[in-house]
Protein backbone atom coordinates (compact mmCIF):
# COMPACT_ATOMS: atom_id res chain seq x y z
CA UNK A 1 0.00 0.00 0.00
CA UNK A 2 1.22 3.46 -0.88
CA UNK A 3 0.94 6.05 1.86
CA UNK A 4 2.51 9.34 2.85
CA UNK A 5 5.38 7.63 4.67
CA UNK A 6 6.24 5.60 1.56
CA UNK A 7 6.42 8.68 -0.66
CA UNK A 8 8.36 10.66 1.95
CA UNK A 9 10.89 7.81 2.21
CA UNK A 10 11.39 7.91 -1.56
CA UNK A 11 11.90 11.68 -1.45
CA UNK A 12 14.41 11.34 1.38
CA UNK A 13 16.29 8.70 -0.59
CA UNK A 14 16.47 10.99 -3.63
CA UNK A 15 17.61 13.97 -1.56
CA UNK A 16 20.19 12.07 0.46
CA UNK A 17 21.76 14.13 3.25
CA UNK A 18 19.69 17.20 2.28
CA UNK A 19 16.58 15.45 3.64
CA UNK A 20 17.86 15.67 7.22
CA UNK A 21 16.98 19.37 7.34
CA UNK A 22 13.44 18.89 6.01
CA UNK A 23 10.11 17.92 7.52
CA UNK A 24 8.38 15.69 5.00
CA UNK A 25 4.64 15.10 5.25
CA UNK A 26 1.46 15.04 3.13
CA UNK A 27 1.63 18.80 2.60
CA UNK A 28 5.20 18.73 1.28
CA UNK A 29 5.35 20.21 -2.22
CA UNK A 30 7.74 18.37 -4.53
CA UNK A 31 9.20 21.58 -5.93
CA UNK A 32 9.77 23.03 -2.44
CA UNK A 33 12.31 20.36 -1.47
CA UNK A 34 14.58 20.83 -4.46
CA UNK A 35 13.66 17.80 -6.53
CA UNK A 36 14.27 18.03 -10.26
CA UNK A 37 11.48 17.10 -12.66
CA UNK A 38 13.42 13.93 -13.48
CA UNK A 39 13.58 12.96 -9.80
CA UNK A 40 9.86 13.60 -9.40
CA UNK A 41 9.11 11.46 -12.47
CA UNK A 42 11.30 8.68 -11.05
CA UNK A 43 9.35 8.79 -7.78
CA UNK A 44 6.06 8.59 -9.68
CA UNK A 45 7.30 5.61 -11.74
CA UNK A 46 8.49 3.85 -8.58
CA UNK A 47 5.10 4.40 -6.95
CA UNK A 48 3.36 3.03 -10.06
CA UNK A 49 5.51 -0.10 -9.93
CA UNK A 50 5.07 -0.58 -6.18
CA UNK A 51 1.31 -0.01 -6.28
CA UNK A 52 0.89 -1.93 -9.54
CA UNK A 53 -1.11 0.90 -11.09
CA UNK A 54 -0.72 3.07 -14.15
CA UNK A 55 -1.41 6.70 -13.40
CA UNK A 56 -2.95 8.96 -15.99
CA UNK A 57 -0.02 11.08 -17.25
CA UNK A 58 -2.05 14.30 -17.34
CA UNK A 59 -3.23 13.76 -13.76
CA UNK A 60 0.27 12.79 -12.59
CA UNK A 61 1.64 15.99 -14.13
CA UNK A 62 -0.72 18.00 -11.91
CA UNK A 63 0.49 16.38 -8.68
CA UNK A 64 2.08 19.06 -6.50
CA UNK A 65 2.31 17.53 -3.01
CA UNK A 66 2.95 14.16 -1.40
CA UNK A 67 -0.72 14.03 -0.39
CA UNK A 68 -1.80 14.71 -3.99
CA UNK A 69 0.24 11.73 -5.21
CA UNK A 70 -1.10 9.39 -2.52
CA UNK A 71 -4.66 10.49 -3.33
CA UNK A 72 -4.12 9.95 -7.06
CA UNK A 73 -2.82 6.42 -6.44
CA UNK A 74 -5.79 5.62 -4.18
CA UNK A 75 -8.28 7.01 -6.69
CA UNK A 76 -6.65 5.12 -9.56
CA UNK A 77 -6.64 1.86 -7.60
CA UNK A 78 -10.29 2.31 -6.62
CA UNK A 79 -11.27 3.00 -10.24
CA UNK A 80 -9.35 -0.09 -11.36
CA UNK A 81 -11.09 -2.24 -8.75
CA UNK A 82 -14.51 -1.20 -9.99
CA UNK A 83 -13.67 -1.41 -13.68
From TrEMBL:
InterPro entries: ACP-like_sf, PP-bd_ACP. Pfam families: PP-binding. SUPFAM superfamilies: ACP-like. Residues 1-77 form the Carrier domain. It comes from the Bacteria. This is Acyl carrier protein.
Amino acid sequence: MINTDTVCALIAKKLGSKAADLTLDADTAFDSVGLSSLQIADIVYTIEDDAEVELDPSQAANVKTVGDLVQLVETTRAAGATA
